[in-house]
Amino acid sequence: MSTFPPLPTVLVIPTGIGCQIGGYAGDGLPSARLLAAASGCLITHPNVMNGAALYWSDPRIHYVEGWALDRFVAAELALEPVRRQRVGVLLDAGIDGDLLLRHRQVIEACRSTLGLTIGPVVTTEMSLEVSLSLGPSGSSWGSLGRPGALLAAGEQLKEAGATAIAVVSRFPDDPGRGALAAYRQGIGVDALAGAEAVISHLLGRHLALPCAHAPALAPLPLDPDLDPRAAAEEIGTTFLPCVLVGLSRAPNLWPLAPGRPAPPAGALLGPQIGAVVAPAGALGGEAVLEALDRGVPVIAVAGNPSLLAVNAEALGVKVLPAASYAEAAGWVLALREGIEPEALRRPLRPLP
Fold first, then answer.
1. pLDDT tens across 31-79, in order?
2. 128 with 134: CB under 8 angstroms?
3. Which of 64, 102, 219, 234 fits a 20 to 30 Å CA distance from 277?
4. Which residues of 254-274 are buried (b: 16+ CB within 10 A; e: fewer)?
């Protein structure tokens, strides 16, 4: 255990680009737990933490939607840790029948079994009409046919007292049989992730509340060749439990701007960030670039390849290279203990 205070560390694993770790059903969670232990304070996003019916609650891990995470690193938002949130649930009008009943049962189960504060539940006036696509690189993205319906329902929840919002929208059941089969066998990209990010970014930015998304899909037939990383999505009937648990203790968002109230004592601030951890080939995101610009150490994990090749060489920047998240945790612990990273490398160059 470190003898020093926590070192706020940001873990980024981009969505929908086929990361070998964190590109599946919450399979980034073990890495997040290790980094939380090394840093004492980890800020990460739902893509890392959400494992459908599975979730790991840790007071050292702060669950922050991707848009808000970028703004936090840019020192435009502060994060206020809280004991609980009142999680409003926004249901797409396109969800019906047994699928709607299953989601309502998940809500009641999380209230009765986990003691979460949930409600109200609001249904959009019309179907959100989510569509899915794959970009030229193979990364996933999507669009929303009726964004106004999403924002109107979100505003209704906020006015009714919700302090965080879980969104459940009806997704196409088969985004391409080949792509779905490849993902389930561990050789493809999560075809839902890009569209999910569009929805949560849009709502979070509009309301300045913690938000996360769960797709509503019909159950899939059993697959005997299922990759272990995709298994968490197969053991339940919805993806909603992890979102409700994650949002139940997500930090409040405090916009930082002239004329705005100051964040409360104990809030996390962007300048406090001691390190950012990201896949070595996915360094082009806003949070990583902001950290590089401000001189925050960026730990690039080569052992998490994806479809992208935006690495330190391509950007012309210096990073701390790590072969794995275990090695990244070592760098975080060294930074927390005040150990000069250069002293851990060989050869050790003499001072000029």
1. 999 999 999 999 999 999 999 999 999 999 999 999 999 999 999 999 9
2. no
3. 234
4. bebeeeeeebeeebbebeebb
Strands, E, within the chain: which ranges?
Answer: 9-11, 42-44, 61-63, 77-80, 87-91, 118-123, 130-134, 140-144, 164-170, 211-216, 252-255, 275-279, 298-301, 320-322
Q: Is residue 115 a contact partner of residue 244, using CB atoms and an 8 Å limit?
A: no
Contact 192, 215 (CB under 8 A): yes
**Residue closest to 51 by CA, chosen among 31, 66, 67, 78:** 31
Give the Cα separation of 223 and 246 in Å (integer). 28
From CA 245, how far away is CA 240, in angstroms rounded? 9
b vs e for 97-132, b when ≥16 Cβ sit within 10 Å of the residue's Cβ?
eebbebbeebbeebeeeeebebbebbbbeebbbbeb
Count CB atoms within 10 A of the CB of residue 161: 10
Cα 349 to Cα 17: distance, rounded to the nearest angstrom: 37
| Cα–Cα distance for residue pair 140/256, rounded to 1 Å | 32
Mean pLDDT of all residues belonging to the chain = 93
**Residue 337 in contact with residue 2, Cβ under 8 Å?**
yes
Question: How far is residue 45's CA from residue 12's CA, in Å, rounded to a whole number?
Answer: 7
Find out whether 31 and 50 touch, Cβ atoms under 8 Å: no
Across-strand partners of 144? 130
Question: Could you tell me the two tokens for 24?
Answer: 């599946």
For residue 96, give both structure tokens: 């019906």
pTM of structure? 0.94
CA dihedral (157, 161, 166, 168) positive or negative = negative
